[in-house]
Write a structure and sequence with these properties.
There is one protein chain. The chain is α+β, with helices and mostly antiparallel strands and 407 residues long. The chain folds into three domains: 122 residues, no CATH class; 123 residues, Immunoglobulin-like, CATH 2.60.40; 118 residues, Sandwich (Immunoglobulin-like). Helix content is 30%, strand content 29%. The chain is built from ten helices and 17 strands. The strands form four sheets. The chain has a five-stranded antiparallel β-sheet with strand order 4-3-7-8-9, with no helix packed on it. A four-stranded antiparallel β-sheet has the order 1-2-6-5, with no helix packed on it. A four-stranded antiparallel β-sheet has the order 10-11-12-15. Strand 8 and strand 9 form a beta hairpin. It is globular and about 85 Å long.
């Protein structure tokens, strides 16, 4: 089942067609798929109306874009798909082809066989509806990917005096503005959910200035009692209308010192911290913020003093030619400041390629190898993706930067 998340809307007409004609064949496959999925719909509604008359043909023809707009709007509202005018155009073309197929079949097919074809067209149309919410990736490794690119979320203050948890931070959609939501804590051990009393929509001029936006009403406060010390919870966001989003931000109320709240990005049950005692990693790990932990690929990524640090443990897949290729993608709210190459090809992100060995640090890192790269972009970074890249992603991880707002 497709999970709720961030799927950016594309209101520019024929943008995907243009990229297809420029040789980006993946867009062509998407366009043809959207055409094909509406052929059964055009066939079915033709059978239900007198398509041979001009008035009937107009009604049937308008049914395609109307149904497509309903699907696209549903995807946008429930955050389970991307709204695109190009999809409406492709669906309309598919419905028109379905009408033509029906007219041809009606002319040459016996009535008994036609009923079977109508049943098949009806089943195909139902599959279209089901496809709105199905057949999308939802594995743990990429669950944050559509979310981090569209939502600004960060807990800036957390405390638990007298057994009552209090959270403050920022939460808003870059292109959808602030939305009322409820903060819910979900136990990573039992799955039990505890809703917090949540207030949203506080003005955040500091965040607006940081992202170059006119205004931001994205501050939030949440509080609730009965949080068990030592129990770990994931912070969930409930926007209503089946839009229930995991943030991959976790908290644990520490028993000692009393009332201390630990905010982290990986469940304690899965995390094995790097061994830093008596090494140069101590300051990076203790003073930095973990952004990526991928034990399957033997890599940690920490943010520390304006730079990202890739910490590779034994088992990391290094290139034998000492040219281990890492990629770093950076999204922003100010695409006009992206590199000329990104703007030329219509990207909304910059790509920074680096080689681990060329950026490797000298020092005492114990059993680890470390490389670093300063994040010195001339625009506000909203989301990042990193991973190993060899003619495609070998592995990848999406994450939020550490936002530094100055109130």
């Amino acid at each position: 089942m497709r999970s709720a998340g961030y799927y950016p809307a594309h209101f520019r007409l024929f943008w995907s067609y243009r990229l297809w004609f420029e040789g980006r064949w993946q867009y062509g496959r998407q366009i043809l798929a959207n055409v094909a999925m509406f052929v059964p719909f055009g066939f079915l509604i033709s059978a239900l109306s007198d398509v041979r008359r001009p008035r009937g043909f107009v009604c049937v023809f308008l049914g395609g874009p109307a149904f497509s707009l309903l699907i696209e709007t549903t995807q946008y509202v429930t955050m389970r798909g991307c709204f695109e005018f190009d999809d409406v155009c492709s669906n309309t073309l598919g419905a028109l082809l379905g009408i033509l197929v029906f007219l041809a079949v009606r002319r040459w097919t016996p009535e008994k066989l036609l009923r079977g074809l109508l049943a098949a067209a009806g089943a195909g149309t139902l599959l279209i509806c089901f496809g709105v919410f199905a057949f999308s990736k939802s594995s743990a490794g990429d669950s944050l990917a559509p979310l981090s690119q569209g939502l600004c979320f960060q807990v800036e203050d957390a405390s638990c005096p007298d057994g009552e948890l209090r959270l403050e931070g920022v939460c808003f959609w870059y292109d959808r503005g602030p939305k009322n939501c409820a903060v819910i804590l979900q136990s990573t051990r039992t799955g039990e959910q505890r809703p917090l009393q949540t207030e949203t929509g506080f003005p955040r001029p500091d965040a607006a200035a940081y992202f170059g936006l006119d205004s931001v009403k994205g501050g939030f406060r949440a509080e609730g009692a009965g949080i068990e010390p030592g129990e770990e919870y994931e912070i969930m966001l409930d926007f209503g209308l089946f839009r229930f989003l995991p943030t991959e931000v976790y908290l644990t109320v520490e028993a000692e010192p009393q009332g201390t709240v630990d905010i982290h990005s990986v469940p304690d049950s899965l995390f094995r911290p790097p061994e830093t005692k008596n090494t140069d990693l101590e300051s990076i790990v203790s003073g930095g913020v973990l952004r990526v932990y991928d034990p399957a690929n033997h890599i940690y990524v920490y943010f520390y003093e304006g730079s990202l640090y890739w910490i590779a443990e034994e088992g990391f897949d290094f290139d034998p030619d000492r040219s281990t290729h890492l990629e770093l993608l950076m999204w922003t709210t100010e695409p006009e400041k992206l590199s000329a190459r990104s703007r030329e090809v219509g990207r909304t992100w910059d790509t920074l390629a680096l080689f681990f060995e060329q950026n490797e640090l000298d020092g005492n890192f114990g059993p680890y190898r470390v490389c670093a790269k300063e994040l010195n972009a001339n625009y506000p970074i909203t989301s990042l993706r990193t991973g190993r890249y060899e003619n495609g992603w070998v592995w990848q991880a999406d994450f939020w930067p550490v936002f530094s707002f100055s109130k």
